[in-house]
Amino acid sequence: MRGKFGLVIGLGVGYVLGSRAGRERYEQIKTQALKVWNLDPVQAQVEKVKDIATSSALALPRTVWSAGVGVYKAVSKQQTPGTKLDAGLKAARNSADDVKKAAEADVEKVVGD
Predict the structure, then answer these.
(1) Where are the domains of the chain?
(2) Closest Cα partner for 88 from 104, 67, 110?
(3) Count of CB atoms within 10 A of residue 74's CB?
(4) Please, which domain of life does this record's source organism belong to (predicted)?
(5) Which of the residue ranges 22-26, 54-58, 81-85, 98-102 would you say has the lowest mean pLDDT?
(6) Please, what is the angle between helix 40-56 and helix 2-37, to 10°?
(7) How far is residue 32 from each of residues 38, 62, 107, measured CA to CA in Å?
(8) What is the phi/psi pair of residue 78, to 5°?
(9) Which of 15, 37, 73, 100 is 20 to 30 A distant from 82 in Cα terms?
(10) Do the Cβ atoms of 52 and 110 come closer than 8 Å?
(11) What are the percentages of helix, strand and coil residues in the chain, rounded to 5?
(12) pLDDT of 102-111, one tens digit each?
């Protein structure tokens, strides 16, 4: 109950302070944010992220699809339920490593440059 009461008080204080700042301050903040957004270094980074996202957008889904196909093939070749389970788990572990590597490579492209 205390947490809810604190939340209500916090929301009330935020509303009062926000309404005191008014529309004029909001417009000032918005104008400054747009100025920063439109700076050449910021836009250069935005373009770089767009390029990386576009180039690697298909890499991870392709890896996930291949992993699923690999698990299916491993399971479908087995005869008994126990061997199917073992083969499926082994293939899933191997596939999970591949997916993890592909995801880390995509993150490294974005963060590492």
Answers:
(1) 1-38, 40-113
(2) 67
(3) 20
(4) Bacteria
(5) 54-58
(6) 100
(7) 10, 41, 30
(8) -85, 160
(9) 100
(10) yes
(11) 90, 0, 10
(12) 777 777 776 6
